[in-house]
């Protein structure tokens, strides 16, 4: 690819000429002489080989070609400014990317609100988000694939703070056979029915959690898939209350009338991937997540 003959500064000068309404006004705005502004625009048109401006009275107006190219150039100049700002932030230690790994049980409302708050404070840092189940969070930490993790336990060699408690409830579709028993449900009743279980996304630590007494189990890859399967009447299962609160209130799902174990609780922890070497962008995102959980 050939190097461009046109500079970003020439595009910027053209933008100011149009935005300010003329060469004299642009010169005042840029604190430059009018002749230097005119020269920059003339060289721009010379390099491109097409007229970009036409003078009407004392005002410079864009030609159709100039209008099309100017619109593209605005994004070009903006991208260049953001690139320079990002380089400056990186020079100050601000990360270009935050690798965020979150257990699927973490309420998505808190997560999306935090990410939305982080955007204007990010200084151009991207967020690489990965949702995992159970030991998937541990493996991301151990393998160095995460800067910030929200997971169900703190692996050996890492430090973490308790962030939030998630309530899991046993539910089934209202017409499920367990509800038609017309009495409290016990473990023997559960063993006779299909249980929907969420698969651990870890590859080698792989751990099980919750009640797994039923021999008749179907395994799905996410909490959303588990809820969908239970809503369809396929089976019963334990899922986060925040995921099914609306379905319960609308009568689409019902809590199983169990003698014990209807509800269980799991703590989620916030863990930094590189304790002692946490970048400012990662710290900023972590602080927002903590604040949202505390205020929630």
Question: Which series of helices and strands comes N to C?
Answer: HHHEEHEHEHEEHHEEHEHEEH
Sheet with the most strands, sense and barrel status: 7 strands, mixed
Question: Ends: how far apart?
Answer: 53 Å
Radius of gyration: 29 Å
Tally of extended strands? 11
Would you identify the CATH architecture of the largest domain? Answer: 3-Layer(aba) Sandwich
The CATH class of the largest domain is identified as Alpha Beta
Give structural attributes.
elongated, about 45% helix, 7-stranded mixed beta sheet, Arc Repressor Mutant, subunit A, about 300 residues, D-Maltodextrin-Binding Protein, domain 2, two-stranded antiparallel ribbon, about 20% strand, alpha/beta, 11 helices, 11 strands, single chain
Q: Could you describe the 3D structure shown?
A:
This protein has 296 residues and is of the alpha/beta class. The protein folds into 3 domains: 8-91, Winged helix-like DNA-binding domain superfamily/Winged helix DNA-binding domain (Arc Repressor Mutant, subunit A, Orthogonal Bundle); 97-163 and 268-295, 3-Layer(aba) Sandwich (D-Maltodextrin-Binding Protein, domain 2); 164-267, D-Maltodextrin-Binding Protein, domain 2 (3-Layer(aba) Sandwich). Helices cover 43% and strands 21% of the residues. It contains 11 helices and 11 strands. It has helices at residues 8-20, 23-30, 34-48, 64-91, 108-118, 135-142, 177-180, 187-191, 223-231, 241-249, 280-295, and strands at residues 53-56, 59-62, 97-103, 126-132, 148-151, 160-172, 195-198, 217-220, 237-240, 254-255, 263-272. Strands 3, 4, 5, 6, 9, 10 and 11 form a 7-stranded mixed beta sheet that branches. A two-stranded antiparallel sheet has the order 1-2. The chain has a two-stranded parallel ribbon with strand order 7-8. Helix 1 crosses helix 2 (23-30) and helix 2 (23-30) crosses helix 3. The relative contact order is 0.14. The model has no long low-confidence stretch (mean pLDDT 87).
């Amino acid at each position: 690819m050939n190097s461009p003959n046109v500079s970003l500064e020439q595009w910027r000068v053209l933008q100011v000429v149009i935005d300010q309404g003329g060469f004299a006004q642009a010169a005042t705005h840029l604190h430059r002489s009018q002749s230097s502004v005119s020269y920059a625009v003339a060289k721009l048109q010379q390099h491109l080989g097409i007229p970009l401006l036409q003078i009407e009275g004392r005002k410079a107006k864009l030609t159709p070609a100039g209008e099309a190219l100017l619109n593209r150039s605005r994004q070009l100049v903006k991208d260049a400014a953001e690139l320079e700002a990002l380089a400056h932030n990186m020079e100050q230690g601000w990360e270009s990317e935050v690798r965020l790994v979150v257990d699927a049980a973490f309420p998505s409302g808190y997560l999306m609100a935090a990410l939305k708050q982080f955007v204007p404070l990010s200084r151009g840092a991207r967020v690489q988000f990965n949702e995992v189940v159970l030991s998937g969070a541990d493996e991301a930490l151990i393998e160095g694939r995460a800067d910030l993790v929200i997971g169900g336990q703190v692996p050996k060699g890492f430090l973490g703070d308790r962030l939030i408690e998630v309530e899991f409830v046993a539910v089934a579709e209202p017409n499920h056979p367990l509800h038609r028993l017309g009495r409290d449900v016990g473990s023997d009743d559960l063993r006779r029915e299909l249980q929907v279980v969420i698969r651990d996304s870890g590859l080698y630590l792989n751990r099980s959690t919750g009640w797994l007494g039923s021999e008749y189990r179907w395994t799905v890859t996410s909490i959303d898939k588990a809820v969908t399967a239970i809503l369809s009447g396929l089976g019963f299962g334990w899922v986060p209350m925040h995921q099914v609160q609306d379905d319960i209130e609308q009568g689409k799902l019902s809590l199983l009338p169990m003698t014990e174990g209807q509800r269980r609780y799991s703590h989620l922890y916030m863990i930094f991937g590189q304790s002692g070497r946490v970048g400012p962008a990662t710290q900023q995102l972590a602080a927002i997540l903590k604040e949202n959980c505390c205020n929630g």
